[in-house]
């Protein structure tokens, strides 16, 4: 048996924390926004997830890789850079050309086969760069969580 | 016979020493506060949301069950609030509200109330809830994925996941001092080793938890990890790493010691602690799961009734 005082404490705790919890969830959801530049990205695929540290690749204190070295479009305009999946994942879902391509290209200018799958783009980009610079993992199990 | 201690039992009425479940629950919550506050400091508002919502939901589930089963109200003993707090300590700060609601339901209703309430539960309610959620929504407990947008001035990798997937080379940046001071990702209240140890010592000194279980658990984790490490130090991390990462410390002081699901006699307590510790490292090093604490404690909870058959010899004789 619990005393009246103990029950009052439990009721107060439940009500106050419920209000704080709901408000915190609501405020966190309302104010949540992705960081201006991604910090880390989790790529998911059948071969297992890959955690990509975007920040360490781009920061001057890290590998200082410029945006254009990976995001090949559109030229030098860093503000207009698109996420990789905007183009490279699009064909797998819709079998139509991604609208992002049309921002710079005419539709008949691009062959379907030119927009390689995202997984192929990442593999060629990551492994190619790691090999070229003789730095970073090259084996599957060094990046993929298997 | 003359050397044997004699027990003198007086007749009723007896004097109650003042200890109660309520006192025990709120003291355990106070002991957990350093680790919880550290988690809130690290992860901010989302952690406040998870902790607050979890405690309140756990109390509401217990209250609902009290009404449904038409039994006297038990929320005043603080055990439901404690379940809610411990649940929140084990999950990532970004856990969605529906998972908190589901998790506390599993802990309070399935883990405790359907067994008959406090003292009757076969498994630690919090551990059972985490295990069911881990099986049902595996990605929710991928701390690397859950905390993608946090940048906290230390290596933002869940240490034991990194060890599991990429070997000891991936955990070289973690020092024992950093891990002890909470410079690692993980559950809201499971990463601040120093806070958990202080809380654990407080609970031992006050007599709310049994040192036999937590110390043998930690000893077994240390010894088993050391054996693996000596066998192959490239594949298996050292014992200190295993003590300071994952759910080891919170498991030792706040989970394995739960009253109803752990033994009461001395030898069984030692076996319980050692068993949970050995299983933890076996699951981590050669099992399929990243952390072994949850499943190790569940298995030992299962063995608890058998272990408690090992009893001290009864004094006196019949007939």
Residues in β-strands, percent of chain A: 5-15%
Helix content of chain A: 40-55%
Question: What overall geometry of chain A do the principal axes of the alpha carbons give?
Answer: elongated
Instruction: Identify low-pLDDT runs of chain A.
Output: none
Domains of chain A, number:
2
Taking all Cα atoms into account, the compactness measure Rg of chain B is: 20 Å
**Most extensive contact:** A-B, 34 and 38 residues
Kindly report the average pLDDT value of chain B: 93
Count helical runs of chain A.
Answer: 8
| Spatial strand arrangement across the major sheet of chain A | 1-2
Fold-level CATH name of chain B: Ammonium transporter fold
The largest sheet of chain B is: none
Which fold name corresponds to the CATH topology of the largest domain in chain A?
Cytochrome C3
Summarize the main sheet of chain A: 2 strands, antiparallel
Oligomer: heterodimer
Report the count of strand segments of chain B.
0
Order of helices and strands of chain A: HEEHHHHHHH
Q: What structural class do you assign from the helix and strand content of chain A?
A: mainly alpha
In the CATH hierarchy, what is the architecture of the largest domain in chain A at level 2? Alpha-Beta Complex
What is the structure about, briefly put?
The complex is a heterodimer of chains A (about 150) and B (about 325). By secondary structure, chain A is mainly α.
Give your account of this protein's structure:
The complex is a heterodimer of chains A (146) and B (319). Chain A has 146 residues and is mainly α. Chain A folds into 2 domains: 1-33; 40-143, Cytochrome C3. In chain A, 48% of the residues lie in helices and 5% in strands. Chain A has helices spanning 4-31, 54-58, 67-70, 85-88, 90-94, 99-102, 118-133, 140-143, and strands at 40-43, 50-53. Chain A has a two-stranded antiparallel sheet. In chain A, β1 (40-43) and β2 (50-53) form a beta hairpin. The model of chain A has no long low-confidence stretch (mean pLDDT 80). Chain B is mainly alpha-helical. Chain B has a single domain, classed as Ammonium transporter fold (Orthogonal Bundle). Helices cover 59% and strands 0% of the residues of chain B. Chain B has helices at 21-43, 45-68, 79-90, 97-110, 125-136, 143-146, 159-166, 176-180, 193-206, 211-231, 239-244, 248-255, 266-286, 293-307. In chain B, α4 crosses α5 (125-136). Chain B is globular, with a radius of gyration of 20 Å. The two termini of chain B are 18 Å apart. The mean pLDDT of chain B is 93.
């Amino acid at each position: 048996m619990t005393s009246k005082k103990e029950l009052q404490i439990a009721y107060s705790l439940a009500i106050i924390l419920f209000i704080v919890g709901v408000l915190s969830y609501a405020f966190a959801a309302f104010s949540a926004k992705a960081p201006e530049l991604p910090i880390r990205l989790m790529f998911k695929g059948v071969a297992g997830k890959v955690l990509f540290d975007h920040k360490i690749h781009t920061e001057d204190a890290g590998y200082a890789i410029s945006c254009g070295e990976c995001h090949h479009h559109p030229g030098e305009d860093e503000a207009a850079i698109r996420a990789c999946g905007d183009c490279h994942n699009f064909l797998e879902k819709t079998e139509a050309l991604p609208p992002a391509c049309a921002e710079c290209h005419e539709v008949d200018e691009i062959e379907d086969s030119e927009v390689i799958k995202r997984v192929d783009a990442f593999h060629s980009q990551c492994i190619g760069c790691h090999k070229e610079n003789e730095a970073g993992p090259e084996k599957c199990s060094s990046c993929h969580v298997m | 016979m003359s050397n044997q201690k004699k027990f003198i039992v007086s007749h009723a009425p007896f004097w109650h020493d003042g200890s109660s479940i309520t006192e025990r629950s709120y003291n355990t919550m106070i002991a957990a506060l350093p680790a919880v506050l550290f988690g809130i400091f690290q992860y901010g508002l989302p952690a406040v949301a998870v902790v607050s919502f979890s405690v309140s939901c756990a109390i509401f589930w217990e209250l609902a069950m009290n009404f449904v089963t038409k039994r006297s109200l038990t929320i005043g003993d603080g055990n439901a609030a404690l379940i809610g707090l411990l649940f929140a300590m084990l999950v990532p700060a970004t856990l969605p509200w529906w998972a908190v609601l589901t998790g506390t339901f599993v802990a309070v209703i399935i883990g405790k109330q359907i067994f008959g309430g406090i003292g009757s539960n076969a498994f630690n309610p919090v551990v059972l809830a985490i295990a069911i959620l881990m099986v049902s929504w595996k990605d929710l407990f991928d701390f690397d994925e859950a905390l993608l947008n946090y940048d906290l001035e230390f290596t933002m990798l869940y240490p034991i996941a990194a060890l599991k997937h990429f070997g000891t080379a991936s955990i070289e940046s973690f020092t024992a001092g950093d891990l002890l001071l909470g410079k690692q990702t993980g559950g809201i209240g499971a990463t601040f080793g120093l806070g958990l140890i202080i809380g654990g010592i407080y609970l031992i000194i006050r007599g709310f938890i049994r040192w036999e279980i937590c110390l043998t658990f930690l000893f077994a984790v240390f010894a088993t990890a050391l054996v693996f490490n000596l066998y192959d130090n490239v594949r298996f991390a050292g014992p200190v790493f295993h003590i300071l990462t994952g759910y080891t410390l919170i498991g030792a002081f706040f989970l394995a010691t739960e009253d109803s699901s752990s033994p009461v006699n001395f030898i069984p307590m030692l076996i319980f602690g050692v068993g949970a510790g050995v299983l933890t490292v076996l699951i981590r090093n050669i099992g399929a799961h990243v952390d072994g604490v949850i499943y190790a404690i569940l298995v030992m909870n299962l063995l608890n009734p058998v272990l408690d058959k090992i009893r001290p010899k009864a004094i006196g004789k019949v007939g």
